[in-house]
Amino acid sequence: MDRFTSMSIFARVVERGSFAAAAEGSGMTPTMIGNHIRELERRLKGRLLNRTTRRQSLTELGKRYHARCLEILTLVDAAELDAREMQNSPRGRLRVSGPVIYGTKVLVPALALYLDRYPEVEVDLSLNDRIVDLAGEGFDVAVRVGVLPDSGLIARPLRPSARIACASPAYLARHGHPQTPGELARHHCLAFMFAGGPEREWRFTRPDGRGAEHIAVFGRLDVNGGLALREAALAGLGVIYQPQMMLQEDLDAGRLVRLFPDWPAPVWPIHVVHLPDSRMPPKLVSFIEFLQETLG
After folding, report:
1. What is the reported pLDDT for 84?
2. What is the DSSP letter of 71?
3. Where do you find CATH 3.40.190.290 in the chain?
4. How do residues 234-283 score in pLDDT, each as one tens digit?
5. CATH class for domain 160-268?
6. Helix (H, G, I), strand (E, B), or coil: what is residue 230?
7. Residues with Cβ < 8 Å from 165, sequence gap 6 or more?
8. Residue 283 phi, psi (nearest 5)
């Protein structure tokens, strides 16, 4: 017999005062009720109830066991209520992964509004530029920049990110100001280091909108972090090709100069991805809908 069911039945017997009363409305017979009580007594090696033909009363063991049963049943009821509420409204802890630049410049400011809107949700935001394993590392959702591989994840598009080429005024004063992307072949270009190697082919959309040019670039410094590349560009080490959202403040302040402003900035797709789940919890649904609403 199921121990939890037997505990529930024992509490019902104490509340109702007899096996027959406990059986009413339970879908069980008094005999079945009695079998559960006897199974508990066998397991506990002691009598829970003093029973006569007219009345029943709790033994000392029964009183102590009944009190603990009520505590356990109350905790189980609370756990079930909490679980049902979690399925009805956004609440609980949400683990989110995102790239460093996008997370710093876009996600964190947006989270202020999300957390204000959903006060019962807590967010763990992990920022790094590698592709995390959502299931293996316990993430609920991730934001990814670039063309997505066929991963089996559910992907929903967000607003794409423009990428531009920039250099510091000091670098341009020493090495000259390239007028077309093709001239980058003669410049020091700072490449982002992906897991498969440095990004040494940069794409630029033609001014007439007819296609794009893919330029092979060279340089002496490769870095696996966008913010570090920015610092290298500010130090005059070369040309950088990174998201405009990261560089805009430096452009506005004159610390960097945008190259080829007549060439439309190419964009990289951005998606929010999650594991396939036909019964997504409200916290995940609310977060994805919020991202599409505010960043889509």
Report:
1. 67
2. H
3. 160-268
4. 999 999 999 999 999 999 999 999 999 999 888 889 999 999 886 788 89
5. alpha beta
6. helix
7. 181, 184, 202, 204, 239, 240, 241, 258, 259, 260
8. -60, -40
Per-residue pLDDT tens digits for 274-287: 998 867 888 999 99
Architecture of domain 92-157+269-295: 3-Layer(aba) Sandwich (3.40)
Cβ atoms of residues 256 and 167 within 8 Å: yes
Q: Which residues contact 5 (CB under 8 A, 6 or more apart)?
A: 36
- Which CATH architecture describes the domain 3-88? Orthogonal Bundle (1.10)
Domain with CATH 3.40.190.10 in the chain: 92-157+269-295
In DSSP notation, 148-196 reads: PP--S-EEEEEEEEEEEEEE-HHHHHHH---SSGGGGGGSBEEEEEETT
pLDDT tens digits, one per residue of 12-64:
888 888 888 888 878 888 888 888 888 888 888 888 888 776 778 888 888 89
How far apart are alpha carbons 135 and 141 in whole angstroms? 10
Cβ atoms within 10 Å of 213's Cβ, excluding its own: 14
DSSP conformational letter for 264:
P
